[in-house]
Design brief:
- The chain is α/β, with parallel strands linked by helices and about 280 residues long.
- The chain has a single domain, classed as Divalent-metal-dependent TIM barrel enzymes (TIM Barrel, Alpha-Beta Barrel), CATH 3.20.20.150.
- Helices cover about 35% and strands about 15% of the residues.
- The chain has 10 helices and 8 strands.
- The two termini are about 15 Å apart.
Length: about 280
C-alpha cells in the first residue's frame, strides 16, 4: 500500500494557503493540510471564506498541481465557543475537498467535552467531514485515553482520533495505548520527532511543539513502533516546525528533508524522490 504524505501548516507557518500548496507540490508531497481557523489568539486568520481572492487562488493551485487537502485545522472547542462558529470553516473545507478536520478540546469537564464534540461531528457530517480529535498535554483533553473516551461516548460515525507521536509521548502515553483505539477511528496520523528528554513544564512542552520538533529519525521518540501500531499505510501529515532549520535552510530544501526523513523512518524509502500523485486522497 502506498502511503500518502501531507504538508502541515505549522511546518511552514509563514506561508499562506496557496503558497503552501505550491511549496508542497514543488517538494514532492501528495497533499496539504490547510489552517482555516486559528489556534492561538493573535494568529493570522487567512481570508479563506466565501469567494475571497485567496480561496480562489488556493482552489486554482490545487487544480493545477493535482494535490488534495488531507485535513483542515483547527477546530478548537472551549466552554464558551459556539460550535456553529465552525459552519463556514466546514463550507470552505468541502469546497477544497477536505475529508478531515483536526479538532482540539480545551474543556476540563468531561461531559461538556463529549457534548461539544458530538455537536461538532453533527455539524460536520453533512459536509462529508470527519472530526479527528487530537490531544495535547497542556489542554483540557490532554491524553490518549481521555480523547478516546470522548470519541467513544459521543457515538458519532464521523468521530475519529488523530495520533501524533509527539503528543502521545509528551502526555505520558505509550505505544501500547494505541491498541485501545478502534482502528476504524484512525483515519490518518501526524508525524515528527522530538528529544527523548521532555521539558519540565506543560508550558515548555507547548513551546517545543510549536518551534522545536525534530525531523523523523533525529530525536528519541519511538517512531518505528508508532508506525507499526497504526493501521497499515494510513496517510501521514508532517508537522515538523523547527526554528533552527527555518533559519539555516532554504524553504524547499527544508521541506524536502522533512519528507525524505519521514519516508525513511516509515519504511517508504523507495518513495523518497517520488513526484506528487494527483487526485487520490479522498
Amino acid at each position: 500500500m502506498t502511503r500518502l504524505y501531507s504538508l502541515v501548516p505549522l511546518t511552514a507557518i509563514e506561508l499562506t494557503p496557496p503558497a503552501l500548496v505550491a511549496a508542497a507540490s514543488r517538494t514532492g508531497y501528495d497533499a496539504v493540510s490547510l489552517r482555516l481557523s486559528p489556534f492561538r489568539a493573535g494568529e493570522v486568520q487567512h481570508p479563506m471564506f466565501d469567494h475571497s481572492p485567496m480561496l480562489l487562488e488556493t482552489e486554482a493551485r490545487l487544480r493545477d498541481t493535482g494535490l488534495d487537502v488531507l485535513d483542515i485545522e483547527v477546530m478548537l472547542l472551549t466552554p464558551g465557543r459556539d460550535v456553529q462558529d465552525f459552519k463556514r470553516v466546514f463550507e470552505t473545507a468541502m469546497r477544497l475537498g477536505a475529508r478531515n478536520a483536526l479538532t482540539l478540546i480545551d474543556i476540563a469537564d468531561h461531559s461538556v467535552a463529549v457534548d461539544k464534540f458530538g455537536q461538532l461531528c453533527e455539524l460536520a457530517a453533512p459536509f462529508g467531514i470527519s472530526c479527528a480529535l487530537e490531544f495535547a498535554a497542556w489542554l483540557g483533553v490532554g491524553g490518549i485515553q481521555a480523547a478516546n473516551a470522548i470519541v467513544s461516548e459521543a457515538r458519532q460515525a464521523n468521530g475519529a482520533m488523530l495520533l501524533d507521536p509527539f503528543h502521545l509521548i509528551r502526555s505520558g502515553g505509550t505505544i501500547i495505548d494505541i491498541a485501545s483505539i478502534d482502528p476504524s477511528r484512525i483515519r490518518y496520523a501526524q508525524f515528527c520527532d522530538a528529544s527523548a528528554m521532555a521539558p519540565a513544564t506543560t508550558a515548555a512542552i507547548s513551546e517545543e511543539a510549536r518551534f522545536d520538533r525534530l525531523l523523523p529519525g533525529e530525536g528519541g521518540l519511538p517512531l518505528r513502533e508508532f508506525v507499526a501500531a497504526l493501521p497499515p499505510g494510513i496517510p501521514f501529515a508532517l508537522e515538523v516546525p523547527n526554528r533552527k532549520l527555518a533559519e539555516t535552510l532554504e524553504l524547499d530544501e527544508r521541506l524536502r528533508r522533512t519528507l525524505a526523513a519521514a519516508k525513511r523512518v516509515a519504511g517508504d524509502p523507495e518513495q523518497a524522490n517520488a513526484p506528487s500523485r494527483p487526485g487520490i486522497i479522498r
